[in-house]
Amino acid sequence: MPTMKLINFEGEVVGSLELSDAVFGAPIHVPAMHQVVVAHLANARQGTASAKTRGEVSGGGRKPFRQKHTGRARAGSTRSPLWLKGGVAHGPKPRDYSQKVNRKVRQLAMRSALSLKATEDRMLILENGDFGTHKTKAMLAFLGKVEATRKPLMVIDESNANLYRSVANIPGAKVLHVDSLNVYDILNHEHLIMTLASAQKLQEVYGR
Fold first, then answer.
1. Same-domain check for residues 136 and 90
2. Which residue(s) pair with 3 in the sheet?
3. DSSP label at 178?
4. Could you give the CA distance from residue 48 to residue 93 in angstroms, rounded to a whole number?
């Protein structure tokens, strides 16, 4: 059973917390994480790119010049993709890029991502979610003390205006509610910092 240090906003260790093996000590399944991340990025695509084909551009109702004896390549329409202002051959059209991932695969990927952070010692548990101040300077000082200045992901269980404001100007830092936590953001950030209530909720949801 993995044991994590419990810290406060001053960066001091105030205790320890034993986490569930099923959620934070699970075998790391790389193919599941890969599938979920690919689907996450695909689902984020708008799919609105569109280019006009030769049948959709204006003009080209008549043959631009006679077939023979001009010294030029034969042409039947100014809407040809070969012509300036002609249509686009094999251009993009609006489409749905979304991918479906089964629930058990998503859960497996989440357990793997959380276990990976715990195994690499890149996860911290905050005693509470009271950050006290909205100052970026205070947040940088905290991150420096816990050695998590590079791309930290803060996971909270309830909205905190001070936290959002203190993190806003820190490059690479991000705040997520525990209900919005996903595999892509866990893997895309170097350090995972979550409140005690967030960790307990993850154990309730994914420890079944």
1. no
2. 18
3. G
4. 7
Q: Report the distance separating Cα 194 and Cα 199, nearest Å.
A: 7
Do 30 and 86 lie in one domain? The reply is no
CATH code of the domain covering residue 201: 3.40.1370.10
Q: At what angle do helices 196-206 and 103-119 cross, to 10 degrees?
A: 140
Listed in sequence order, the residues at least 6 apart from 116 whose beta carbon sits closer than 8 Å to its beta carbon are 28, 187
pTM: 0.83
Tell me how far CA of residue 27 lies from CA of 58, 60, 119, 136, in angstroms.
59, 63, 10, 37
Please state, in angstroms and rounded to a whole number, the distance separating the CA atoms of residues 98 and 18.
38
- Listed residue (52, 20, 16, 5) closest to 206, CA to CA: 20
Q: Same domain for 185 and 121?
A: yes
Report the largest interatomic distance among the alpha carbons of the chain, rounded to a whole angstrom: 91
The per-residue pLDDT for range 161-170, each reduced to its tens digit, is: 888 888 888 9
The amino acid occupying position 138 is: A
Encoded amino acid at 29, one letter: H
User: Which parts of the chain sit beneath pLDDT 50?
Assistant: none
